[in-house]
Amino acid sequence: MSKERILVIKLGALGDLVFALGPMQAIRDQHPDAELTCLTRQAYCELLEASRLFDVIWPDPNPRPWQIGRSLAFRKQLREAGFSWVYDLQTSDRSNSYFRLFWPGPYPRWSGIARGASHRHIYPRPNRQHTVDRQRAQLAIAGIEQVPLTDLSAIDGDIGHFNLPENFVLMVPGSSPHSLDKRWSTAHFRSIAERLIAHGITPVIIGGASEQPLARALLDGLPGGIDLTAQTKIVDIPPLARRAQHAVGNDTGPIHLIAATDCPLTVLFSRLDALQKNKPGGPQVTVLQNDDLQNVSVDQVWTAMQVSRAV
User: Fold this and answer.
1) With contact defined as beta carbons under 8 Å apart, do 257 and 168 qualify?
2) What domains are defined for the chain?
C-alpha cells in the first residue's frame, strides 16, 4: 500500500517560515506515516531539510502569469503527485493560484484561504492577529488542535570554522532594503559594539551581502569586532545563537531564528502592526518598539541587553 502524500506550502519570508515550523510539526504529528512534501523558496530548502520534518522538499518554481509552459509543467507536477491534503500556510494570492491549478478537479482537501477550499479559513484582512495564533485557527478547521511552538533543536552544526571567542554577542543591524524604517541607526549599533568591547565581549555582525556596508561602518576602527556578513548560511544561525551570550537586532528574519533558540535577545520594532503579528516568543526576549527607532536610545538598548551583569 502506497503512503498517503501531503503537501505543505510555505514560501517565506524567513521570519514567517520560522513561525510556521510549529504548525509544520503539528501537521507531521497529524500524519505520522504520510510522505510529507514542503513547497518553499529555494533559499529555505536547506533549513527545512535540516528540520527533519519533511520527506521531500520542492523548490517553488514561481511561474509568472506569462510563463504558460512553466505553469502547465507545475500543474502537471502537482496533479500527478496525488496529494490527499494540501496545507497552505502561505495563504497568499500566489499560493491561492496553486489551488486553481487543480481545476477542473479533482481537488485535494485544502487548508487555506482559497475560494473553493474544502477547509477554508476566513478571517478579516488586513489581520493583526499573531501569525502563530492565525495558523492555529486555520489548522483547527482541518482537525488539528495541538500546535507546538517552533523547535529548532534538530538544527545544529559545527561553527568552529568561524573561530569565534568564548564570549560574543550577535548583532543584526540590517533589514530588508525595502524596509529601512525597521533599522536602528548604524551609529547606535556601533555604540553598543564599543560598550561590548569595553566589557571584553566580542560583537559579531551577521547578515547578507547587502548588509556588508553596514558591518564595515559599524566596526570601522574598532579593535576586536568580527564581521560575518555574507559568510553564514541560514542553518548556521541557530548554532551561533546557542553559543552567543546575547543577541541584538532589528525586526528581520535572522532575529526570529535566534529567538527560537532561547538565546537572550533584544529586538527593536518600528511598526506596531508588525509587532502584533510577529512578536518573537520566549522568556529571554526583550522588545523595544517606537514608530521612529532613532528615538530609542543606546542606554535603553544597553539596559535591556543586561550585558553588564554577564561580565
Assistant:
1) no
2) 5-141 (3.40.50.2000), 160-310 (3.40.50.2000)
pLDDT tens profile 7-63: 999 998 999 999 999 999 999 999 999 999 999 999 999 999 999 999 999 999 999
**Residues composing the chain:** 311
Summarize the confidence of residues 211-238 as an average pLDDT: 95
At 202 the three-state DSSP class reads: strand
Residues 6+ apart with CB under 8 A from 125: none
Cell 496553486 belongs to which residue? 98
Beginning with the edge strand found earlier in the chain, give each strand of the sheet holding 56-59 in spatial order.
Answer: 56-59, 35-40, 5-9, 85-88, 109-112, 119-120
Q: What is the pTM of this model?
A: 0.94
Closest by alpha carbon to 122, among 131, 130, 113? 113
Could you give the CA distance from residue 284 to residue 212 in angstroms, rounded to a whole number? Answer: 28
Residue 168 pairs in a beta bridge with 202
Collect all residues with Cβ–Cβ distance below 8 Å to 119 and sequence separation of at least 6: 109, 110, 111, 112, 141, 142
Element (H, E) at 38: strand 35-40
Going by pLDDT thresholds of 50, 70 and 90, the confidence category of residue 308 is very low
Rg (CA), the chain: 21
* CA end-to-end span of the chain: 60
Distance separating alpha carbons of residues 214 and 117, to the nearest angstrom: 45
